[in-house]
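Deliverable D4.2, example record:
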Amino acid sequence: MLTISEMLKRGIFVILFLTGIVCLRSQELSHQVLVPLASTWHGDLYHISQSVGEPVVQYLPGEQWDMTQGFQQPSMVYELTIKPQGNGIKVYPNPVNDHLKLEMFGDLQVEYHITIFTIDGTIYLRKSYQCDPHYWRNEVIDFRNYKRGLYFVRVESTPERISRIFKIEKM
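Output generated by the structure prediction step:
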């Protein structure tokens, strides 16, 4: 016959055992590992580092590469993007702090002429971008050395398909 003390010990053991099983099932993560060893890679625009045995929490397949994301990059977000339809240009973000992005897309060969100027007519940048047929091009303009204020971005394309002016605020 079991004593009360032995019954309490067995009861506590059963409760701890069941709690452990529930906790093991509470987190459903992939068993993939980002890399088997720690390493870093440096490029002109990118710095990538991995840690030993870091589990993959996000996966993005590409045509010539596969991108994975683990816990060490909480501020990075990978998105599978689709080329915009039609012909055009997007200028963002607004307001801008450090970098202004130009996203140019279309089906016909185009040359874009970009001019950044202020309300008093001072020109800060003139640049042209040649785009081949079926293009989707992203360019970045460094705005870190620009003063706070209001800027205008004039976009003209040759042959004359697009002519727009974007108002951009530098914070």
